[in-house]
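Dear Dr. K.,

Following up on our conversation at the group meeting, I've run the structure prediction for UDP-glucuronosyltransferase 2C1-like isoform X1 from Sipha flava. I'm pasting the input sequence below exactly as I used it, so you can double-check it against your construct before we proceed with anything downstream. Let me know if the numbering doesn't match what you have in your notebook.
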Amino acid sequence: MNHINLTIGILILVNSCLSANILAFLPTKARSHYGGFEPLLKELAVRGHNMTVLSPFALKDPPLSYYHIQVEDEILAMDWNPFSVAKHFKPIFIPFMSWLIWPKFTEMTINKPSVLKLIHSESLHFDLVIFENFFHESFVTIGHKFNAPVVQIFPSVPNAGVAQWYGNPYIGSYIPDVNSGFSDDMSFMERLTNTALSFVYTALSSLYYLPKQSELMDKYFNYTGWETRPSMVSMLKNISLTLMNTHFSIGTSRPLVPSFIDVAGMHLRPASTLPKDLQDIMDNAPDGIVYFSFGSVIKLSQLPKDQFEMIIRQLGKIKQKVLFKWDSDDKIDFPSNIIIRKWFPQSDILGHPNCVLFITHGGIHSTEEAIYYGVPMLAISVFGDQLHNSLVMQNRGAAIRIKYSEFSEDAFEMALYKTLHDKSYKEKAKELSVIYQDQPLKSLDKAIYWIEYVIRHKGAHHLKTNACELTCLPESVGTQND
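The predicted structure tokens came back this morning:
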């Protein structure tokens, strides 16, 4: 009995020694981004770390060492129709529009009581800071405020403008920019165009966009001791670790420096049993089930009436039952094979062996889930990374992509027929699933390992290469004196 007590005591002592105080600075209201990293925050607390999470999204049933700081909600101006915008949308202009729009969102996010209170707090101590860097470069200064190593997380693949600070190779001849509209199988002219775009995005970002983030840093992050703060560029180059929501099975293969770690799919898990009514539908579908969902941001009720009728008309012709995520209360006579609900347990549906096709917008989490469960996709891509994700999957043979700007009933009918009857799409999806799952560590375990590695090695700055010092932007950018 004494030996058991001694062992327990040693384990408690070891756990106490290994635990760290970690701050996750995630004040932005972007549920689709936050959801991919929420399992990481929870697991860090489960494994004994003291987690403080500043976020608009509270965790259900949090562990004892998980402390949530609620960020005040706001009413976002989301009355725009993404389908209307997509008809005239050119992905190549996304960076330029982002440089105009995102500093405003960043300022709106910082200028909230809970965020400002944390920035000006005096008694808190953290051993590590985590923040999302999706056009929020000014957030990096929270590491200086708490004198702690910094881990940045990305909801997708960092672009050339981000890669430059860490010396991560970003070679336009074979790494397509997510906004270029190109896959990794580029012609000579596409390679030349992609290279030029990468250079333009990087140069203009440094000269025009980053100074705006620096101004926000100086305006709002004026905590005690800010006078000793290095430039924003210096702090960006000093980030210890970058966790990316990507993997070569669902994206483009590319070289990564040791501090860049791909952790796509931390939210993925084996499918669970469905609610009884859905389980009966899925189990008793001899021809299979088609699942139709455009995620949590795009509302299908905003589709133009004629296009909505096109989709419903074609879905009504197939012999499969269709689980259709529909956000409206409007009374519509759907065909008998279409089952509508405002919410479906997406992962558990995709993980059921009778799910034969996923009709999706091509968002990153939906793409990850489709590949994890080996389900082919018909992607109607509207904007953002959806266009790139679905293009990659099409080139891998696991999907057919229809750009919404080119949507027609004929194109949808042809793609629907082909993905349902050509077995090669299912075979390729299964093949990619095997590739994705064949990893030495699950993505969540990998992320935990490297975060704890950074803590153990006090920032682990040996992971960086000297290429970090070879940037052309002056060190003075991002200081109070600019």
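Two things stood out to me. Confidence is low (pLDDT under 50) at residues 3-17. The radius of gyration is 24 Å.

Best regards,
J.T.
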